[in-house]
Design goal:
- The protein has eight helices and 14 strands.
- By secondary structure, the chain is α/β, with parallel strands linked by helices.
- The protein folds into two domains: 80 residues, Alpha-Beta Plaits; 195 residues, 3-Layer(aba) Sandwich (Rossmann fold).
- Strands 5, 6, 7, 8, 9, 10, 11 and 12 form an eight-stranded mixed β-sheet that branches. Strands 2-3-1-4 form a four-stranded antiparallel β-sheet, covered by helices on one side. Strands 13-14 form a two-stranded antiparallel ribbon.
- β13 and β14 form a beta hairpin.
- The longest helix has 24 residues.
- The protein starts with a strand and ends with a strand.
Length: 284
Amino acid sequence: MVRRILLVSCPDRPGLVATIAGWVAGRGGNILDLDHHTDVESRWFFLRMLFVVPPEGAALDVLTTEFSPLVGAFEMTVSFRDPTVPIRMAILVSKYDHCLVDLLLATRHEDLPVTVPVVISNHETVRSWADLFQIPFVHLPVTPDTKPQQEGSVLEELQRARVSLIVLARYMQVLSGDFLARVGCPVINVHHSFLPAFVGAKPYHQAFERGVKMIGATAHFATTELDEGPIIDQETVRVSHRDGVADLVRKGRDNERQVLTRAVRAQVTHRVLTWRGKTIVFDE
């Protein structure tokens, strides 16, 4: 038997779970794990199913074709995934290395089912980490005047690496709308603030000026609207009047690396659905 994952979103109606379960049973399969949720206000249904089927019917294109009558009947958006195939993930990073290192360690320890074919940076600072983990490192410096050309070079490297996910591990450059339109795969960013508070540059400085008692970090999908993409995960830590900006930065690092790695894991284990500007993230 071969493992597969099914992700579904559609208008809610009675019998959806029974219908999908019956479809799996009808192909000689068996459900190993099932999670579903209905948004009561909009009456919209979401499902993640881990199931097994006989090898002869397990190809993703075969499953998609055989499931298509249900797609038409129930107005579904559907994707089938192979959980045994690691996601090819590129990491973009600037000078701060804590999120990069956490991702690389999680990959080394097989906590993330990914391969990292390239690390791209606009600084040389983190090259030693890529070398340590034996990952190709590409240095592509950028200035305001060279940004379009640099983004074109980044896109070329990403296409050469054949990635299906890009992670911005404190990549301190705002990606253009043209880049996001051309990149062809999800982009996950970590912002060092508990969004929607303190968007943009220097959020720890903004938090210090406001005298907040809690700071946070947010992992979200990058969109053309700065720091407004669907939120995948968030984390907070308490602070006080005794903390200066440097203290906020120090305390925030743990938030940033934890929230980014958790968000990446949710994405690469096929637990995230986006809908109407927000996410549904199924628990492990």
